[in-house]
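## Example pair
The file below holds two records. Each record gives the amino-acid sequence first, followed by its C-alpha cell line.
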Amino acid sequence: MQVPVRNMAGDQVGTIELSPAIFEVEVNTGLIHQAYVRQMANARLGTHKTKSRGEVDLTKAKWYRQKGTGRARHGARSAPIFVGGGVAHGPRPRDYSKKMPRKMRRQALRSVLSALAQDDQIVVVDELKLDTPKTSAMRAILSNLTGDQKTLVLMAERDDAVERSIRNLGNARVLRASYLNVRDLLSADRVVIPQAALDVIESFLGTAAQS
C-alpha cells in the first residue's frame, strides 16, 4: 500500500510502501474486541471492597431482648438490613486480568492498523521534532497534518520536547511505538507515524517477527 509522506507543514514530500503483512491483513473484529476487553480488564485495580457484618465496627451486644417487644428477633445491629450495618454479597478485592497469547495480541494490532489504513486514517511524516517544548507550535503542526481531529502520535523513542508539547492538547495523545496498543489506536481519528516510528512497528509486527 502506497501512502504519501508529509513534512510538518503538511506538504507531501514523497511516498512510502506500507508493509502488507501489517497494514493489509484481513480485519478480524472479533480478535480486536478480545484484545480490547483484555486490555481494559487488565487496567482494573480490583481493589473495591465493602464491609461484611463481621467487619462493621458496631457493638456486639444484643440490640434488644429476645421476647416481649413484638418485634422481630435480632442479635446484632450490624445485620445488612439495618442502616450502618454490613453489606451482603458486596464486592470484594479480585483480579480481573485476562490472558491472551502474544501472537493473537499482535495480530489484533495488525487488524486495527489495517482498518485504519483502509480508511486513510494513517498519516506518515518524514520526521516530527521540536527544539524546545511549545504547545502552540505542536498544535499548528498537528493541524497541518490531521485538521484538528483526535490524534494519536507515535514516536520511535523518548522525545521530551514533542511529548511535553502534546501533553496540554486536549485532542492529541503521544505514545512510543513500542507501547502500541489496541485501545489507543481505536480511540484516535488519525494516527501520525514518523518514519522512524514506522521502522519500530515493522520490527515487531513484520513478517520476521511472526516467525
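Second record, same layout:
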Amino acid sequence: MLKDLYTNQKEQSTVTVYMRQLEQEKIKLARELHDTALQEQVIALRELDALLETPEMANKLELRKKIMRIREQQASSIYLLREFCQTQYAPRLAEGELKSQLQFLLDRLQLRTYLEIDYMNSWPEYALGGERALHVYRIIQELLHNTEKHADARRVKLMLYQDHSYYTLDYSDDGNGMDEIDLSAWSKFGLKGIYSRAECLHANLKFISARQQGFQCILRIPILADYDE
C-alpha cells in the first residue's frame, strides 16, 4: 500500500511552531532527568559499590548476592535512563554535522541489535543545517525506532542522495510491514510525527508497505524551498 501525504502553507506554519515547541520540551525533559533522577541513581550505585567493598560484607555471601542483584538492576536503570536522555536531547545541528550525527545514531543501533544496516549518504557535506537537519535526524531516529521495536526485521537500508532539485531520503526494512497505513498506525508507529516534520521541510512523503513485505519511507526535500527558520 502507498500513502502519499502533503499539506498547505498555512498548516505548515502551524506545524512548524508546534514542532519547535516539542523540541524545546524534549530538551527540557532530558536535562531535568539527567540533572536529577539520573544523577541520584548514579550516586546510589556508587554507594552500593562502596557497601560491597566493606570488610563486614566479606563473609556475608547471601547478602552480597542480594546486593549484587540490586546493583545490576540499578546499573540497568541508569543505562536505560541515560539512553532515553540522549535520544530526547539532540543539539541544534549546524551545517555539516548531520552526517556525523547520523553515523553515531547508526553505530549505537548496531551495538545493541543484530540488524544489518546498509547505509549510503551522498548528500553534500553542507546540504542541511539548523532545523532542517534536526527534522531529518528525528525522522530517521523514529524510523529506526519503529524497525527495532515493531518490525521484527533483519535488515535496514538507508539511502540519502541528491536527485535533481531534491534531497532524497529512502528508508526501508524487511520486517513485518502493514496491510494498511491508517490513523491507528500513525500513533503506534510515530508516523504522524514523521508526517509533521515532513511538512516543516516542505517535503514530499510516501509510505509504502504490505503485510510481510517490509516497510519503506521516501522523503523528497526540495533543495531551494523557502524555509521559515
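Notes on the second record: Residues 186 and 192 are 5 Å apart (CA to CA). Confidence is low (pLDDT under 50) at residues 1-7.
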